[in-house]
Amino acid sequence: MGFKYLYAVMPIWLPAIFLVLVFKAWVDYKRAQFWQKQDSILLEIRLPKEITKSPVAMEMVYNAFFHTVGESTFIDRIFRGKTRNWFSLELVSLGGVVHFYIWTRVNSRNLIESQIYSQYPGIEIHEATDYTKPYYYNPKVNNVWGCEWKLTSPDAMPIKTYIDYGMEKDPKEEFKIDPMTPFIEFLGSLTSGHTVWMQVIIRAHRKRRLADIFGEKEDTWKEEAKKEIDKIIEKFRPKDKDKQFRMPTKGETDTITALERSVSKLPFDVGIRTIYIAENDKFNPSNIGGLTGAFRQYSYESLNGFAPTGGTTGFDDFWVDPTGRVKERRKKELIEGYKARQIFHSPYKGFGKPFVLNTEELATIFHFPGSVAATPTFGRVPSKKSEAPANLPL
């Protein structure tokens, strides 16, 4: 009966599906045309020996990155293929030598430099050659492990941030607990022939609009937070009218405070990739544990955290991919997507939906550390610069 009904209404749903597919292909085509005309640049950030500022400074930088211009009208989005700008924040180990990079469109270079110099005067920023160009997956030469990351709870639930680590007060180095330090130390411990890339791709989050129906996340971030707060408050209310409201526990109060603080800050759409590449005779599976373990620093068991998804994960059982072809294809896709610095749009949309992090959370997982990160292969500027370049725009 059900099949006959579907067959009967096929003249309605079949053309509708066709039109949707054609519309999506058109949007992808116009976006590809638009991107081909955009020049990009990779900037390397070299740090001074001492950075006394807390990640609050990096949060100020991200506030300036929050731009939704470029796709404000229906004509821009559909017929011109325009998209709002995105940035790729990259922390990389090339044989144990640790680098910080930011990738963006050329027209955003002045924005990045002026904002970073204003918060970190001793930093040096240089245009860099794309370090990913020499790397390709060749099973006869090298092996690749990689994944993307997802949140373990709804987006509105915050991860563990630098404020939870007491870093918002610019503590002295000897008292500082920086959640990025274990990852940087791991990157610095790698030896020649081992390469690890981490990429955090961000763009300003905004409300869903017409023609965003293909792949963009609905604007439920603040609504999710309100629902979570309402769930907690509901526990205070007595089921019996004769009983009084009970007092919230410290954990419940902390959760409400964390949620309210989370949605009070600017939100970004975020996608994260991590990749480990090594020559076949040097590939060490224990480095995978070092890579994934770095993300545990940001997990709150009662709130939110990160978990690997997609990529080369999920193939532990033989029957999942008996020929091994899917896993091999994904290794190539991971590297191609990373090189393209894309995760929000086809053809490199990744393996899951982007999630939302606010500026505080972004500043926690990607900021410029002080001397507490003391790995010897972490290159730093020999001496402080007295001031930022004078030719930066105001």
Describe this structure in words.
Strands 1, 2, 3, 4, 5, 6, 7, 8, 9 and 10 form a ten-stranded mixed β-sheet that branches. By secondary structure, this protein is of the alpha+beta class. α3 (56-65) runs antiparallel to α5, α3 crosses α11 (359-365) and α7 (221-236) packs antiparallel against α8. It has helices at 2-8, 10-36, 56-65, 74-79, 109-119, 181-189, 221-236, 250-263, 286-293, 325-340, 359-365; strands at 40-48, 87-94, 97-105, 124-127, 142-151, 194-204, 267-279, 306-309, 355-358, 380-381.
Beta percentage is 15-25%
| Major sheet description | 10 strands, mixed
Query: Count of helical segments?
Result: 11
Inertia-based shape: globular
> Which structural class should the secondary elements be placed in?
alpha+beta
Number of domains: 2
Topology, number of strands: 10
Distance between the termini: 69 Å
Q: Please estimate the helix content.
A: 25-40%
* Unreliable spans: 213-217
**String of helices and strands:** HHEHHEEHEEHEHHEHEHEHE
